Amino acid sequence: MILDSLFFALPATLPASLIAGMLGLLIGSFLNVVIYRLPKIMQRDFDNYIAEQSNQELPHKDVFNLSVPRSACPHCGHQISAIENIPVLSFLALRGKCAQCKAAISIRYPLVELLTAGISFGMAWHFGTGVTGMAGLLFAWFLIALALIDFDTQLLPDDLTLPMLWCGLLINTQNVFCTLESAVLGAAIGYGLLWSVYWVFKLCTGKEGMGYGDFKLLAALGAWYGWTVLPVTILFSSVAGAVIGIGLIILAKRGREVPMPFGPYLAIAGLLMLPYGQMITQKYLGIVL
């Protein structure tokens, strides 16, 4: 790649991949903050906007962003110190409990850190640690945050989907994962495909089958690895959604009427398609760009 010649790139060795995995632990800790706080920031901004339009007093005047206030126990308000915030290790040392009130800490926090570490290791192992590998890490981190936010809230924030889309287009100006032409077509076709499905479903049933965030996420995926991989992405995400959805209904007794977000399945497909999508597409669909 053109950009790789501008940077020192470590070989895709086990030590280099382990370093990427360790970085993933730290990023995973940050992603936990993003996943928890970003929807709340959006809701607070919306509440303040509605109040402004009605000439009412703002309901939220305190500072609340990704760094302020400091993380604290939701039960007793104990502020979490740096030593209590070491990825995975602090959870194990504290035995999954608050240092002050001993309330249980959700196991999801270390699981997200381990997931991010594992995926980061895999991206570095596959792509190396040059520009392509670093871009793969960024791609993965975007998708982990988006998948879990959508799982929790059924929201795919523009604050993440749009930067992800633009990053994909910018990276592919140097043909990192595909040509720029394929990336632009991928963004346009990705958005248009799900937009069309949305309107066909709505006209036929009178219901909304998915949200606009799903359109933007598929557009972002197309911007990263091009339009040729989109058919396999949609196929894989649909199969994953069907299998996991049926599993939740049978095993977790989830009601069929409960809406299921599509973003996590797109994210799962995207994480597989970035390293393997072109190969799968060329081998089974015969599409070569």
Explain this structure to me?
The protein is 65% helix and 0% strand. It has 289 residues and is mainly alpha-helical. The longest helix is centred in the first third of the chain and has 40 residues, at 14-53. It is globular and about 60 Å long. The model is unreliable at 1-10 (pLDDT under 50).
Question: Briefly, what is this?
Answer:
The protein is an all-alpha fold. α1 crosses α4, α4 (131-153) packs across α9 and α8 (230-251) packs across α9 (263-285). The chain has helices spanning 14-53, 89-93, 108-127, 131-153, 158-171, 180-205, 212-225, 230-251, 263-285.
SSE map:
Layout: H1 14-53, H2 89-93, H3 108-127, H4 131-153, H5 158-171, H6 180-205, H7 212-225, H8 230-251, H9 263-285
The low-pLDDT segments are 1-10
How does the helix and strand content classify structurally? mainly alpha
Cα distance spanning the termini: 17 Å
The tally of helices reads: 9
CA radius of gyration: 21 Å
Mean pLDDT: 90
- Sequence of secondary-structure elements: HHHHHHHHH
Instruction: Write down how many β-strands occur, each being a DSSP E stretch of 2 or more residues.
Output: 0
Taken from the alpha-carbon principal axes, the silhouette is globular
Question: In percent, how much strand structure appears in the residues?
Answer: under 5%
The largest pleated sheet is described as:
none
Helix content: 55-70%
